[in-house]
Write a structure and sequence with these properties.
Layout: H1 3-9, H2 13-35, E1 42-45, E2 50-53, H3 58-68, H4 75-87, H5 95-111, H6 119-127, H7 136-145
Antiparallel strand pairs: 1-2
Helix pairs in contact: 2-3, 2-5, 2-6, 2-7, 3-5, 4-5, 5-6
Length: 155
């Protein structure tokens, strides 16, 4: 385990939350850049053969809900189909975008749905959105530094 990973794991739950939100905000930016200019995305659900339209606003709504600590946009019910489609390989993204999607989903599950999600999983998924592996340590270090800035403010 790297020293930065150990440093993260030594943080209090409140400070881990700050890191999660900083990294997931960055993951959302990657998602937003990926979908920029797209009006819609569809995929075929192979079990029934139906065409599904992907809800492009879902990851952003997941982050907004997590910040508020409650499901403000019906996120829980909206995630079901696309997550299953990803697991069935019906819905595919480039790997960094897939990790962004999962990081935001797991952030929502942890901070809104109250699921037990390993804290490092969210960090690892969010960091996996970085195309330049040389930047990963810098990104995590910057997120950990945010814990020194005081309590996280809800937006």
């Amino acid at each position: 385990m790297t020293p930065l990973a150990q440093e993260f794991l030594a943080l209090t739950p409140e400070k881990r939350r700050v890191v999660h939100f900083a990294l997931c905000q960055r993951a959302l930016e990657k998602w937003t850049a990926y979908i920029a200019g797209r009006k819609e995305m569809t995929y075929t659900e192979t079990v029934c053969g139906t065409t599904q339209q992907l809800d492009l606003s879902l990851p952003g709504d997941a982050l907004a809900s997590a910040k508020q600590g409650r499901d403000v946009a019906g996120v829980a019910s909206r995630y079901g189909e696309p997550i299953v489609a990803m697991q069935d390989a019906d819905l595919e993204f480039p790997e960094p975008i897939q990790f962004a999607y999962y990081a935001l989903y797991n952030l929502f599950r942890k901070y809104v749905a109250g699921k037990v999600i390993d804290d490092w999983l969210i960090v690892n998924q969010a960091l996996s959105t970085e195309p330049d592996l040389n930047q990963v340590a810098h990104v995590l270090r910057s997120a950990i530094r945010k814990t020194e800035e005081g309590p996280m403010r809800s937006k």
